[in-house]
Amino acid sequence: MQSCLEANFSKTLGNFHLNVSLYLGEEIGVLFGPSGAGKSLTLNVLAGLVKPDRGKITLRGRILYDSASSVFLKPAARKIGLVFQELALFPHLSAIENVAYGLKEPNKWQLAKEWLDKMRLSGLYERMPHQLSGGQKQRVALARALAPKPDLLLLDEPFSALEGPMRRALRRELKNLFLEIKIPTLYVTHDVEDVCSLATKVFLIRDGSITATIDANKLWDPQSQENVWHSLGWGTLIQGEIIMEEGNHWFRWPEGKLKLLQPTSPARGKATVFIPPEHIKLLYPDLPVDPELKPNAMEGKIIERIEMNHLVRLYIHSAGIEWHTEHPKDSYSTLNLNEGQNVSFSVKPSMIYVLTEECDPPK
Amino acid sequence: MRPSFIISLKVLAVDVPILFFIGTLMGWTLAKKQFKGRAIVDTLVVLPIVLPPSVLGLYLLMTLSHIPFIRESRILFSFPAAALAPLFPSLPIMIQAAKSGFCSVDERLEQAARTLGDNELKVFCRVTFPLTRSSLMAGLALASMRALGDFGVTLMIAGNIPGRTQTLPLYIYSRVEAMKFFEANLAALLLTILGIASLSIVKKLEGKHAELS
What we know:
- By secondary structure, chain A is α+β, with helices and mostly antiparallel strands.
- Chain A has helices at 39-47, 95-100, 108-118, 134-146, 164-181, 192-198, 216-219, 225-232; strands spanning 5-13, 16-24, 28-32, 54-59, 62-66, 71-72, 80-83, 152-156, 185-189, 201-206, 209-215, 236-245, 248-253, 256-259, 269-275, 280-283, 298-307, 311-318, 321-328, 342-347, 353-355.
- In chain A, helix 5 links the parallel strand 8 and strand 9.
- Helices cover 81% and strands 0% of the residues of chain B.
- The interface between A and B is medium-sized, with 22 and 18 residues.
């Protein structure tokens, strides 16, 4: 596939170094990695909101930035649609005024209406952002970014504030929309489900660098999947087998087992599971445990603690596995989480991703 | 009382547009722009609020009387001085209100406008200003009332000349000195009513601002 976006740039902010090299055709690229990896900064640089230190960015042959020839196109001239994590709908404008904001055509109100209709928001034209539900706001933000027909669409974890079913529905809509309008799209996420459902290409980013670019089909290739998931370098990856016990599906490895969501695919046999770090929950010894967490509760010893800006990463050794957890700094403040301490932790069955040939995220 | 009331209205007619434009510009600059010496400017801007009006008036008198143009054109102790004097204690109120209003605008909204094709002027007119309008108007109402009620600075650089520089607060002072309490009370009542009216406008605008943010 021919590249529409070619970006090679670096940017240093304080102690953080971002070094990005990515090529994107008419496809959905997912920029996937942990919090603090540089995902949002990458989008801001591409959108022109942050000027890189050096490098070159071209979009459909147009030079957006080139440090060698001192070219830096301002965001207004880039023709790039950006949907912010917080959506950033203009609070003083109605839904239709938000969508028409970037349109210059004489029939802009008609076009804005058509976009809102396409997003299933007919009849809500005059609603103010605070009168819209979370999902409706997402659609307005998406329509606003797409209405001026951008050459590239950037999405910064747009569904992060939504609950499961709404999130899945919007993701499906986004995919259908992409198939219809075919705008190169770069989608930032740290959610495995987003990768599964949307990506045609996955850029793994960690500590400011793109560590791998993977064709989405390869993610589920049994021959290569372990390498792919290992190259993420974060999260917990376990090899074992799926078994049936007392009518439930379990994932078992020599030193332990985890209850899975019913039913699983494959139903039995060898498998690999992936658990994102934010889904491993620490348990308070004196408090009742969430029934969903109870079957998978385990004891372990903290072997490493890393403090980042707003996050604490823990590596816990338990049942022969090094479990990787991540939580906001102000969480679990009453627990002693120093290296060498024993802790209880668990993971909900719905948050264990069974890696198979076909993407099968929890329903 | 009528001549003093008319002089006060004239002072407001001169000061309100100046307060609005300079206050908005400085508030925006202090909220959105990074420049060398910003902290010093920030402090200097607030200084007139904490200085006693007589001290501020004295500094102004000393400074202005040494500027040849001002000395020769006899601006001091004339209406232009009466119009200029209230700006010094009231402008910081407007600047602070504008600054906090501009700071409260989510930067991502401005960034979104930029990605949708707006240049900086358009971003200001279409996003920043509409979202700050209530704060600016509330600041303008408070600063205007402070200007209307100024006594110390006006007395120091414009004097208390009936029919020329005597504003309502100076009129009240003169009436009390002459033991004419009825007229003093009448003028005080007028200023009080105007004060309550401006406060109710401020409250209403603050509610509107909270709704938008």
